[in-house]
What does this fold into?
Amino acid sequence: MGLVTGKEILEVANRDGYAVGAFNINNLEILQGVVAGCIEKNSPVIIAVSEGAIKYAGFDYIVAMVKTAAELSPIPIALHLDHGRDKEIIYRCIKGGFTSVMIDASHLPLEENIKETKVVVEMAHAEGISVEGELGRLKGVEETVSVAEREATLTDPQQAERFVEETGVDFLAPAIGTSHGAFKFKGEAKLDLERLKEIKRRLGIPLVLHGASTVPQRILELALKYGADLKEAKGVPSEQLKKAIALGINKINTDTDLRLAFTGAVRKVLAENPGVFDPRKILGPARDMIAEVVKEKISLFGSSGKARSR
Ligand code: G3H
Ligand code: 13P
Ligand code: ZN
It folds into this structure.
């Protein structure tokens, strides 16, 4: 089938109470691994592409690869711009084959965030493309010093209601205590689930969790065994993700776990086979490892067998 919008996938997930993975891809092998895992689990998927990924792989290559994946697959696939900040890139995505975009103006004051987001929503909706907005800040452990400071970065439910009403976004990414990367928490990992519950109660629309990698122990051990320097790595505990899904998260952004899986597999091949120099023998196992991790994620998110839900 052809590409579908993020909204088509997420409205069903919202109605039926599960989450769909938004997996970041940067090259052919990651894309193929993600799609293979999703086909095996018969799950819809959102392929997330950052501005950095576009710069790395090239806009036309990305669109062509993901369109081809959708045409060859029996599952719904959306092509989504992740953390769009550059207006030119956002507009190019809207006009050039993406079926969903995120405008991330979360670093701006509320009024400006609303203004910038609204412009993108109008443009994207005119093309039948869905839009994700972000409100609140995803600050990492090193970026805040006190609990009060951290609290202040989290999304205010009342502001979220106003943001959605005035911008018309199709789904919203609130900040509830997660952050990007492999070092999310020092000490106990904690999401503000009460805040999430209140945001969902007020909005009702699909909600997105960024910074949702769990840093699985097995993957971390593989990386550490073959020389990675990741000793303090810590992700969101799977149990907390499950609770967040039960409270209304429908899109789960996952990049770090794929990066860890991919590079862990590459490290293993190179360490165990010093004579190997065929890229297919190095990247093939990494692609398989991505598929394995994606399958585990789908089981956790609850989207197994949902490819044909309408
Ligand atoms: O949220 C950010 C994603 O993990 C993409 O990261 O900008 O390094 O491609 P990137
Ligand atoms: P992780 O770094 O936790 O994988 O989060 C990815 C993300 O939010 C992409 O938008
Ligand atoms: Zn993100």
Residues 6-308 form a domain with the TIM Barrel fold (CATH 3.20.20.70). The beta strands are 20-24, 45-50, 77-84, 100-103, 130-135, 171-174, 207-209, 249-254.
